[in-house]
């Protein structure tokens, strides 16, 4: 019994590392396809729960919003001088012109 537990503990880092490598090197497929479901399983095995390109953390963000009494708003990003930041065209998957901020919820 103890040998089995030790073997699992020794194998777990290899599974996590392999799954992380697969997730980092492959594009995200659609979730409704079989490959997408397999990829999602590999993503969880890799402990990739906080990747910004996916919406895996929406539950946690909503929970933090409820606990702190805040909500998330998208606003134009500004630099140190207060000028608007332009979007960098070399990164099509990220829009640097906007940022997400937390603001106190308005009671209506």
Description:
This protein is an alpha+beta fold and 108 residues long. It folds into two domains: 1-56, no CATH class; 58-108, no CATH class. Helix content is 44%, strand content 13%. The chain is built from three helices and two strands, in the order αααββ. The protein has a two-stranded antiparallel sheet. The radius of gyration is 20 Å and the shape is elongated. The mean pLDDT is 76.
Give a short summary of the structure.
With 108 residues, the chain is of the alpha+beta class.
Helical element count?
Answer: 3
Low-confidence stretches: none
The strand order across the widest sheet is 1-2
**Fraction of residues in helix:** 40-55%
Query: What would the average pLDDT be, to the nearest integer?
Result: 76
Number of domains: 2
Cα-to-Cα separation, first versus last residue: 59 Å
Class derived from helix and strand content: alpha+beta
Shape: elongated
Order of helices and strands: HHHEE
> What is the makeup of the main sheet?
2 strands, antiparallel
> How many distinct beta strands?
2
- Radius of gyration in whole Å, from Cα? 20 Å
Strand content: 5-15%
List keywords for this structure.
single chain; 108 residues; alpha+beta; 2 domains; two-stranded antiparallel ribbon; 2 strands
Strands, helices and their partners?
Blueprint: H1 2-25, H2 34-45, H3 58-68, E1 70-76, E2 98-104
Antiparallel strand pairs: 1-2
């Amino acid at each position: 019994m103890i040998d089995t537990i030790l073997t699992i503990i020794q194998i777990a880092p290899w599974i996590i590392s392999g799954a992380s490598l697969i997730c980092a090197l492959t594009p995200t497929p659609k979730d409704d396809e079989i490959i997408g479901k397999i990829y999602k399983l590999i993503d969880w095995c890799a402990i990739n729960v906080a990747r910004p390109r996916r919406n895996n953390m929406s539950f946690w963000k909503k929970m933090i919003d409820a606990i702190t009494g805040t909500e998330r708003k998208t606003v134009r990003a500004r630099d140190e001088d207060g000028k608007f930041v332009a979007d960098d065209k070399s990164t099509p998957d990220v829009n640097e012109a906007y940022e997400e901020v937390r603001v106190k919820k308005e009671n209506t």
